[in-house]
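hiii so um. not sure if this is the right channel but i have a protein structure encoded as tokens and i wanna go backwards to a sequence. like what aa goes where. can anyone help
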């Protein structure tokens, strides 16, 4: 495939977590598609009263320095939307998630902390989206913290003070406002935000550049390159006989020329010197099946593989994350027999 055009660098919006750009900016002059070309225009239009059941699975593994582990978080939850003064409030309820580590986690405190961390990282607080499809606020943080604290009360009550302190510090780190905003922003961009108002022609690759944020590296910003493709029109689900959805693909990778300066600054903040032969590679891929005229997603798959190397004589650490979310809509989506919803802004008029 040939590059159809090169998008301008993304400079607006909230900080982006690695792998997910914000709304892509179109060039001033976009080449006209030839007559008969398959072109899709992606627009945001989530309705008030949208109800969905999401089936979720996340597999994570690590090999190398620090020990090996692998586990899966899987389950389901309910999503509903309602009117907010800032746009559209997205709420989560009926959350049932479990952690399957195949018995590989250590017993006692270590195993409990690992399983709790995996579960906490998968639970989402509510958030607010503007009428333009931009994430503007994260809500329900206090309720989420309270629920997790309640869950560990029985366990922590019989533990020494230092163990209770460690668990509390872990929750503070996972549920800090900064981490939650970065995570929710990344998930929204992955599923919806990065596709806003894009016009894509099937058969071409589209490119853009943006700064990614590494939350676990002191929010260091790293230059990132991404490629986008529109793969064609597909059924929204196995039950759908038409092809009212589109399949989209995004792949991103760290710009090696910009990675080292960013990480050197991070190591300086820690009062340490970055190893001369340290290298990090990250490949991130997202595939989305969505409704083009609303950007209501029906299926999302992603894969993120990170390899950190300390060079000759050092050890490599490999981390892999693979996720899948399938949505069943009970109300509000254009398919599933419901009337096509209108945005919160349009409903008010």
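sure thing!! here u go:
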């Amino acid at each position: 495939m040939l590059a159809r055009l090169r998008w301008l660098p993304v400079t607006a919006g909230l900080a982006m977590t690695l792998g997910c750009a914000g709304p892509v900016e179109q060039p001033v002059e976009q080449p006209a598609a030839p007559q008969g070309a398959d072109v899709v225009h992606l627009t945001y239009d989530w309705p008030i009263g949208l109800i969905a059941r999401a089936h979720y699975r996340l597999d994570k593994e690590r090999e190398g320095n620090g020990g090996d582990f692998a586990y899966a978080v899987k389950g389901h939850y309910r999503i509903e939307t309602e009117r907010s003064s800032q746009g559209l409030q997205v709420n989560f309820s009926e959350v049932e998630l479990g952690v399957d580590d195949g018995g590989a986690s250590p017993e006692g405190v270590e195993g409990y902390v690992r399983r709790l961390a995996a579960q906490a990282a998968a639970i989402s607080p509510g958030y607010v989206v503007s009428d333009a499809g931009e994430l503007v606020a994260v809500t329900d943080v206090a309720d989420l913290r309270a629920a997790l604290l309640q869950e560990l009360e029985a366990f922590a009550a019989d533990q020494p003070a230092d163990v209770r302190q460690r668990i509390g510090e872990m929750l503070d780190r996972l549920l800090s406002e900064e981490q939650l905003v970065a995570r929710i922003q990344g998930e929204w961009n992955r599923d919806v935000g990065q596709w806003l108002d894009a016009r894509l022609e099937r058969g071409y690759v589209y490119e853009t550049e943006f700064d990614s944020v590494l939350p676990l590296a002191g929010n260091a910003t790293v230059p990132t390159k991404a490629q986008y493709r529109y793969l064609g029109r597909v059924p929204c689900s196995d039950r759908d006989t038409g092809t009212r959805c589109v399949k989209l693909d995004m792949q991103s990778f760290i710009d090696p020329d910009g990675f080292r300066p960013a990480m050197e600054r991070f190591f300086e903040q820690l009062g340490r010197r970055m190893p001369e032969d340290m290298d990090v590679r990250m490949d991130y891929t997202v595939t989305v099946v969505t409704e083009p005229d609303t950007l209501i997603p029906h299926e999302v798959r992603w894969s993120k593989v990170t390899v950190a190397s300390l060079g000759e004589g050092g050890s490599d650490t490999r981390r892999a994350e693979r996720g899948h979310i399938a949505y069943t809509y009970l109300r509000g989506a254009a398919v599933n027999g419901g009337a096509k919803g209108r945005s919160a802004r349009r409903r008010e008029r």
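oh and The longest helix spans residues 141-157.
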